[in-house]
Design brief:
The structure is a homodimer. Chain A has a single domain, classed as Farnesyl Diphosphate Synthase, CATH 1.10.600. Chain A has 15 helices and two strands. Chain A has a two-stranded antiparallel ribbon. The termini of chain A are close together. By secondary structure, chain A is mostly helical. In chain A, a hairpin with a 2-residue loop joins strand 1 and strand 2. Helices cover 71% and strands 1% of the residues of chain A. At the A-B interface, helix 2, helix 6, helix 7 and helix 8 of A face helix 2, helix 6, helix 7 and helix 8 of B.
Chain lengths: 299, 299
C-alpha cells in the first residue's frame, strides 16, 4: 500500500462518504417502469470509487470558504461525468472491459443499450445539477460552472481525448500528441475539478490560475501513473485488466520514455504541482498531500 | 406530398438553412488528429433533416421579439441534442438502424466507437452553446435554458423515454404508459423547443404556459404520426426502415387504438394545439401551420 497519511486517508474517506450520499439523493431508488435505467446509473456511480475529482472540488472550494452544501453538488456533478465516461469507455465497441473496480461493468451487469442510456443520463444530469439554484444562488456562477464543465468534458476536452485514444491504437503518435491526448482525456476534467472550487468561490484570477496550473501538472502525473500501473500493476491490485496498452501496441508515456524516465517525470510534475500551491501559504496542504498520493497509488 | 403552404415551405427552408449555417460554424472542418470525431458529428447534423425543433425555437422566439442571433443558437443546441439522440438510438445495441434520412447512420459511415463519442460530443456541445454569452447576455436566461434542456433531455425526459421504449419490446404497456413513454421520448424535447423562445424572451407565465400546452399536444400528435408512418409508410418515402414496431411486437398508439382511431386522435390533438395559440391573437400563424404539417407529413 502507498503511504497515505492518516489525515489524507480520513479526508478521502470523508469525501467519498459525502459524495456518495449526495449521489444517493440525486439518484434515489425508484419503482417506475424505467427503473432499470436508474439502477444502471446507481451501479455506475455507487461503487466505491476513489472520488479523487470530488476531493479536488471540495478542497479547492475550501480555500475560498465556499458553502459545503454547494461544493458537494459541484463535486457530485464532476463524479457523474467521470462515471458516465467510464460506462461508455467500457462498452464493447470501446475498451470492451468486463470489470471495473473489481465488479461487472454496466453493460455486463445490465446490457449494452442500458449502458449507453445510463451514460447519457449521467452526463445530462451533471448539467441539471449545476444549473439548479441549490448549487449556487448566483446564476452567473452556475453558468460559469456549466460552461467550464462542457468545455472540459466535450470535444476539445475529454471526448476529444477519447477519440485520440482510439486513434492511438492504429497510429503511432509522438510524445507531443500523447501529451495533448492525455491532457484532453484526463487532464481537462481534473483541471475543471480544481477550478470548480475557484468558480464557486469567485476567486481572484491569480488564485484560480494557480489552481489550474496545479491541476495541469497533477493531471499529467496522474496519467503517467495510470500508464505505469497498466504496464507494471496486477489485476488483483488495480481491480481492472492490465497490460492492455502494450497488447494494443499503443504508444504511452511508458512505451516512449521507458518506466524509469516516466516515473521520474511524474515525480517532477508532482513537485511542480506542489509549488503552484505556495500562493495559498500552507492552507492547501490537503491538495499537496493528494498530489503525492496520486503518484504513490497502486490502483 | 402533404399540402404545405408556400409560406410554411419557405419558412421551413429558411430555418433549415440558418440552423445548418449555425451548426457549420459550431463544427468547422478541422485537420486535428481527432478530425474523425468532428467528421462524424457533422455527418450526424448536416444531413438535411426537417429541423422541426429549430423551427419551433425560432418561431416561438419571434413571438417575443427575441434577437435572431440568440434564437438561432438555442435552435442549434436543440438540434445538436436531437441529432445526438438519433446517433445513439441507431446503434446496433439500440435500434440497429443502417439508414437515417436515406444515408448511412453514423456507426455505419464511421464505426460504433466513433458514433458513441460523436453523440456524447454533440450532447455536451449543446450545453456549451447555451452557456455561451452569445446565446443571451443575461446569465439567468442562459441558466434557465440549461436547466430546462437538461430536464427535457435527461432521465425524466428523453433518455428515460428511450429506456421505456426498449422495455416496451418485451413488456406490454397500457395506453397510459405508452402516452407517458412518448411524452418523455419525444414530447419533452418538443416542449423545450417551444419554451426556449419564451425563456429567451422572458415571456409572462401565461404565454409560456400556452406555448407549453401547444407543444404538449403537438408532441403527442407528432408521435402518433410517427407510429402511423412506421405501420403504413414505405422506406422510400420515410428514408428509414419501416414496420419495425410490429416486427418487434411493440405496443404503439397504432397497435392499441388501430390506425383509424390513432389518426383521429392526432387530428384532435392538432386542433387542440392550435386553440392554445389563440392567446397570441393570430401572431402564431406559423406555429399553427406547422402543427397541421406535422400530421400531414409522409416522412
Amino acid at each position: 500500500m502507498p503511504s497515505v497519511s492518516p489525515s489524507l486517508a480520513a479526508a478521502l474517506a470523508d469525501t467519498a462518504e459525502r459524495v456518495e450520499a449526495c449521489i444517493e439523493r440525486l439518484l434515489p431508488r425508484t419503482d417506475l417502469a424505467e427503473a432499470k435505467l436508474f439502477h444502471a446509473m446507481r451501479h455506475a456511480c455507487l461503487n466505491g470509487g476513489k472520488r479523487l475529482r470530488p476531493f479536488l472540488v471540495l478542497h479547492g472550494a475550501d480555500l475560498f470558504g465556499v458553502n459545503q452544501d454547494c461544493a458537494i453538488r459541484a463535486a457530485a456533478a464532476v463524479e457523474l461525468v467521470h462515471c458516465y465516461s467510464l460506462v461508455h469507455d467500457d462498452l464493447p465497441a470501446m475498451d470492451d472491459a468486463d470489470l471495473r473496480r473489481g465488479k461487472p461493468t454496466v453493460h455486463k451487469a445490465f446490457d449494452e443499450a442500458t449502458a449507453i442510456l445510463a451514460g447519457d443520463g449521467l452526463l445530462t444530469m451533471a448539467f441539471e445539477v449545476l444549473a439548479n439554484p441549490e448549487t449556487h444562488e448566483d446564476p452567473q456562477v452556475r453558468i460559469n460552472l456549466v460552461a467550464a464543465l462542457a468545455r472540459a468534458a466535450g470535444t476539445h476536452g475529454m471526448v476529444g481525448g477519447q477519440m485520440l485514444d482510439l486513434i492511438a491504437e492504429t497510429t503511432q503518435f509522438d510524445i507531443g500528441t500523447i501529451t495533448r491526448l492525455q491532457r484532453m482525456k484526463t487532464g481537462d476534467m481534473i483541471a475543471f475539478s480544481c477550478e470548480a472550487g475557484a468558480i464557486l468561490g469567485r476567486a481572484a484570477p491569480p488564485l484560480r490560475h494557480a489552481l489550474r496550473a496545479y491541476a495541469h501538472d497533477l493531471g499529467l502525473a496522474f496519467q503517467i501513473v495510470d500508464d505505469l500501473l497498466d504496464a507494471e500493476g496486477s489485476e488483483a491490485e488495480t481491480g481492472k485488466p492490465v497490460q492492455r496498452d502494450a497488447a494494443a501496441g499503443k504508444a504511452t508515456f511508458v512505451s516512449i520514455l521507458g518506466a524509469e524516465r516516466a516515473r521520474a517525470q511524474a515525480e517532477m510534475l508532482v513537485q511542480q504541482a506542489e509549488r503552484h500551491l505556495d500562493i495559498f501559504d500552507g492552507r492547501a496542504d490537503m491538495l499537496c498531500q493528494v498530489a503525492r498520493y496520486v503518484i504513490e497509488r497502486r490502483s
